[in-house]
Amino acid sequence: MKQGKSIFFAILAAALYAINSPFSKLLLEKLSPTMMASLLYLGAGIGMFIVGFIQRKTGKTGKEQPLTKKELPYTLGMIFLDIAAPIFLMLGLTMTTAANASLLNNFEIVATSLIALVIFKEKISKKLWCGIGLVTLASLLLSFEDMSSLSFSFGSLFVLLACVCWGFENNCTRNLSSKNPLEIVVIKGIFSGLGSFIVAVLSHEVTFDLVYMIFALILGFVAYGLSIFFYIYAQRYLGAAKTSTYYAISPFIGSTLSLVIFRETPSMVFIIAFIIMIAGTVITSQDA
Description:
Elements: H1 2-17, H2 20-27, H3 33-58, H4 72-93, H5 98-104, H6 107-118, H7 126-142, E1 144-146, E2 151-152, H8 154-174, H9 181-202, H10 210-238, H11 240-247, H12 249-261, H13 268-287
Helix pairs in contact: 1-10, 1-11, 1-12, 2-10, 2-12, 3-4, 3-9, 3-10, 4-8, 4-9, 5-12, 6-7, 6-8, 6-11, 7-13, 9-10, 10-11
């Protein structure tokens, strides 16, 4: 029962996060990458703080364990990585298509699983290794703008860097997953958002457009706040590596939305990579 509920939460988290790349791409026309990253996490933190406030007022708070000093290293790691990852992603989105970035987000499975294996000693089966190999192959295909001349896309590199950061962050969060998910998201959102805002100020990338800022905060609440909240619940029973395999549905939803919203015509390389990604995802999810 708990595993079935956790799988549902992982898929729900993926669906909510899927709207991030296409809508962030639209908002980046008016907001700088670091400012956008800041607003996304601030939207998550503020939004979930309001949810927690409503829960306390209505007496619907559950019996969750608060964070303690013992979890401080993982909490700090989570915040630092969540400052770096969305900045890399927003930079990548300014240099590549939203559909390409969405599909590349699947590399997070590879990063999360390998870090879980090497550092946190989670078991990885032969099926999961096979799926990781296919996702890596598809990521390499998507990382080259022109396969004939092998021209590397720096936009793709930034997206992959974001995935590596989130891979480390997922494993940090895995070690916090027994604690109150709402508290984790609020801390993650507020402090990561403020950190990104400081980076925006120091790099002179602060932009103020109230309407677009409000949209970015709302997007952050939905695509980051609610998504992370359900993701943490899923990790509690599935672990970091297996949760990421179910979460892998997100890039496919995101890339499809991007193609529709921006009326992009997918290249043959994109189609091939898409098929390989599907095969890798199916294999890894069967293992989970």
